[in-house]
Amino acid sequence: MNPQDQTDRALTGPLRREAVKKNVAAIHVSGKLTLLQRKLSNVLLLNAYDTLIYQSSHAIDARTLCTMIGYNSNDMETLKQSLRGLVETSAEWDMLDEKGQQEWGVSSLLSYAKLKGGVCEYAYSPALAEKLHDPKVFALINLDIQRRFTSGHALALYENCYRFVRTGSTGWWPLELFRRLMGVDDSAYYETFKHLNAKIIKPAVAEVNKTSNIIVTPETRKMGRAVSDIRFIIKKNPQLSVLELDDGAGVRNEPIYEKLRAQGVSDRLARQWINQHGAAHVAEKMAYVDGREDVRNRVSYLTAALREDYKPADGAGQGAPTSDRAKQLARLRDLVASRSPTQRDADKRLFMARIDTPAARLDFENHGWMSALNAEAIVAFWEDLMPGALTGQGDTP
């Protein structure tokens, strides 16, 4: 399968598995990843999961990847930096195999990553791919939950605790290991448990319990008078249950499922959206996107439309705009066309500096001055810049 066939395989939900009877073993990933890199790592794994042990490489549209993580889809430098960090980060495991033999291993989190033609291609080492694909070893993270996190330490704690959700406890971790999982093992300040507890453990536990689908409670034990080990007791959070996928039998009979698949949406992502939002809501957003003729990447835009709950504005996606709006858009096109290339570039930069939400920024990046989500702000911007130009009461250059 070529990379383009895999484009937009953006996965957003954990697999539904039967309870594993044996203890879950965890892969420990260095905690030095930034919050953005942790989110990126989870998106890439979810995207690759279906073919993780059968394909040597995987691919996803770069703009879709940026949209799912929630940052500027044109910011390729940040994406490059984040991918570089994943290649430089190690994943380590130390566990019993099925025959009871001890197995230790270490691997780069990604064996390579590259950006070419708007597509992000990447790969895992065969040994790590085998572990990541085994639900007894590694648990997939729900992206709707990870988006809620604002702290890298909290997301790191969540990931390392969620791996053990079926067993109810992480088991005892030496403090040295815990500091490494939190990414503070090279700081002398956090060698003192008082500092570690106040600055890392307590804030991270509070955010996990408030934000995620699990409740964690830390317990410590001492060697002499000093704390030597820590573990976390884990319970499901009844207020935030996991968005699990069903077996697909019912969802695949929904008409909207076939429409999503026809546009290149993966099977798991299509089921995730329908389970999470409902078939009617997904159909509504798909109709909205279909009504936007200038959308370049339909899956990326639909991802944002569902996440940010885009709604038609000024008739967008509902047929022709009103006569007044049509006249205003015509004046806007003429006004923009009358500006020099340097002025047009400056106008866009000045307006984008005023945009304060990812959804509005993405809409402007896709549609420019015709952006429906920014319609009112665009009118206000040009009214400030050239009073009366869009109302027909001023002089255009």
UniProtKB/TrEMBL annotation:
Domain Initiator Rep protein WH1: 20-161
Gene Ontology terms describing biological process: DNA replication initiation
Family annotation (InterPro entries): Initiator_Rep_WH1, WH-like_DNA-bd_sf, WH_DNA-bd_sf
Pfam families recorded: Rep3_C, Rep3_N
SUPFAM superfamilies documented for this protein: Winged helix' DNA-binding domain (SSF46785)
Entry GO MF terms: DNA-directed DNA polymerase activity
Gene3D superfamilies referenced in this protein's UniProt entry, alphabetically: Winged helix-like DNA-binding domain superfamily/Winged helix DNA-binding domain
Family note: Belongs to the initiator RepB protein family.
Name under which the protein is recorded: Initiator Replication protein
Lineage of origin: Bacteria, Pseudomonadati, Pseudomonadota, Alphaproteobacteria, Rhodobacterales
